[in-house]
Amino acid sequence: MNKSKSYLQISGILMLTAIITTVSFNWFMNPYGIYHSPEIDGINKRKPLFAGQLRLAKAWTIYKRKPDAIILGSSRSECGLDPNHPGWKNAQDVYNLAISGGNMYEALRYFQHAHALKPQKKVVLGLDFRMFNIFEKGGAGGFKDSRLVVKADGSVNSEFSIFEKFIMLASMDVLRDSMKTFKKQDRDLHYLPNGKVSWKVNAKQNNKLGGYHKAFRATEKKNMNQIWFQRPNQYDFIHPNTGQSSFDYLRGLLDTAYRDNIDLRMLVSPSHARLWEALHAVGLWSKFEQWKQEVVTINEQQAKKYGKQPFPLWDFSGYNTYTTETITDNMKWYWESSHYKQELGNIVLDSVFERKIADDFGVLINTKNIDKHLADIRIKQQQYRKDHPFDAAEVLKLAEETVRQRQ
């Protein structure tokens, strides 16, 4: 009996020791950067596993940092918009809260999360056509409402618990990521501490694909065959079964921003002209134009509701000096047809923050000029095809191939 009791005591001590060791190691390694643990260069300073748990990591990072200014949007904003740009002058802490593969619901929910934790002074919202596909599922590190401090209606989220953050410390999955964090300290960072994607990620991806031209082709094929058409559904703003509209999420975000006097600035991302050619080639151009018209209308409706001037809404898409950059082995403005470099993002933010307005790049759109603006883009579209016959023909051929693949 004594031997049996002694065995149970030893087993209990060993189990408790294992749990304490696991919790301590996970806290110290802090693989997702969400704990206030010390960071030692070469040991745990780099967080290469952050990307694999992106939605979890960014939700808890916001809880930890409580920034007073944020960037929202998709991976285009993650890659191109810099929290350290001088236009953020009145903000103390700016964080890039854009989400790779994110949809409009996620943008709304992370905005609500950040604003509930600390009132936002300034917000830049990068709007992308992909985000408004009601069937967009999102990507890495699965989104969960329970990780956010408020519900979609703005009330306190009873499902949120600070204890989840500490329960994770005893997880074997987190332990594996902690060990990988230690082993991969020599790896280039995917995400910078301010939430922005490192330029090295894009450069490495381009090298892996075989250069800029192949990266352009791969991006266009992926958008035409997968991103814009989330099988088994076609692109749509409204869910046929529930009637839920992706524009409702934008209304919700704007409603809070106008009500709480947040300095919100919106922009349509400046992807390369070849991506707009791809969008046209798969039959989504009219929906793209409808999307812009709806965004403009909703912005002004919400402004009128609160008796405010509409938030500035810039359109950097279409065909202009920057978006028609020729594909070379050393491009200045683009990584591929979807993602622009920080150098172009800085020019975007210069306009958005009214520091310096670039020529032939970016138009402030509203209900008075949207129809003419869209017509002007169609004219420039025809001119692009004349001036860049190879690019136009190549994208059209890729579109024909992807249509067959989708079928």
Described by strand count, sense and barrel closure, the largest sheet is: 6 strands, mixed
Mean pLDDT: 93
Flag low-confidence runs. Answer: none
Structural class based on helices, strands and sheet pairing = mainly alpha
Give the strand content. 5-15%
Characterize the overall form: globular
SSE series = HHEHEHEHHHHHEHHEHEHH
The number of domains is: 1
User: What is the helix fraction of residues, given as a range?
Assistant: 40-55%
Q: Biggest sheet: strands side by side, in what order?
A: 2-1-3-4-5-6
Cα Rg: 23 Å
Number of strands: 6
Distance between the termini: 71 Å
Note the total helix count.
14
Notes on the structure:
The chain has one domain. It is 48% helix and 6% strand. The chain contains 14 helices and 6 strands. The protein has a 6-stranded mixed beta sheet. β1, α3 and β2 form a beta-alpha-beta unit. The longest helix is centred in the first third of the chain and has 28 residues. The model has no long low-confidence stretch (mean pLDDT 93).
Q: What order do the helices and strands come in, and which of them pair?
A:
Elements (H helix, E strand, L loop, with lengths): L1 H28 L24 H12 L3 E4 L2 H6 L13 E3 L7 H14 L4 E6 L34 H6 L4 H12 L15 H11 L2 H16 L18 H14 L3 E6 L4 H9 L3 H21 L7 E3 L26 H11 L10 E2 L5 H18 L1 H18 L1
